[in-house]
Amino acid sequence: ALRLSYLRGGGHDPAILAQLLHLQAEATALEKGAAGPRRGRRAAPAVPGKPPSAGARGLDAALLAMELENRRLEDELLALKVRRERRANAGSQVAQQQAEELAQLQAQVGMLRCHMERTRPWLPPVILPPPVAPPLPP
Known about the structure:
Layout: H1 2-8, H2 14-35, H3 54-119
Helix pairs in contact: 1-3, 2-3
């Protein structure tokens, strides 16, 4: 739960994730050790008089290591998904802001054009006399 809330809150520091994973592994090992006899598991060896085989303990350790690695990979995937969503949201927010700014600028240009057309003095075109031809040579 701590790990998930850290990731959902935006945490992505590998050192902290490693610590959380280590704490989870310790908690899992403690739970298995403490809850074993209460869940109907036998604390005594399968064969009376013989200790549990090293192979069985090795399999338990390998299984625990595999579970922890799977959880670490799931955490990594979740962190990547969160980062991708944030990037997508940030990109769409930037695009939306730019579109709003463009619309505001276009509106301002339109208002300025209207203002210029209204305030432009409408004088009649200047009528010039016809051009005068140069004098003829003598």
